[in-house]
User: Fold this.
Amino acid sequence: MNEQQIFNLNSEEHFFEDDFCISQSNQDVYDYLFKWPSWESNILNIHGPSKSGKTFLLTIFAQKHSFIKISSKGLSSEKIDFLLSQKSLIVEDIDQSTSEEILFLIFNDFKANNKFLVFSSTQDSSNIKFELKDLASRFKSVFNLEISNPSDNLLYSILLKQLSSKQIVIKKELLTHIINRVERTYSAVNKFVVNIDKESLVNKKKIDLKLINHVLTNQ
Assistant:
């Protein structure tokens, strides 16, 4: 299936471009990113639902093109000189920012010096409710690219990859049953896999239709 595979990532896992499969939901974002440096705008925001693969894609991109990548929660006055010295930077999760003044400084510096700056968020940057009005104004003019909710094929691929990462193998008809009943979001599939794994291990239960329905009902 030619679909994106999503991981429940932790700091020990690695990101490989071959593990990222293209689907209709992320095609435009992928194509735009990887035509760098021939971008129409040097500043952009990639937004999409939780667990939609933004971090995965941006990590691959950062590794390939030597972008520095940092979470907005990691922004601090101690890091500002280092960050402003960069020619290309990725700041993730800007709608969770706790340092709007630093985010504002970074935005202004990169824009004034025509440097490359990529943000990520769960919503279009023009809709983020920043407390700093000047920052909100800046983000209303940012070029946005969206990773949309997944298709059935993509959900199937995500589910299969998530289960495989936990060494869980179930029959195809059960996979289809899950896809037909789970909420149609990245995070819902991720939550289902975490819960079914936990139920199976803690209660020492076989993963069958009864257990699957129990987990789906109690998500």
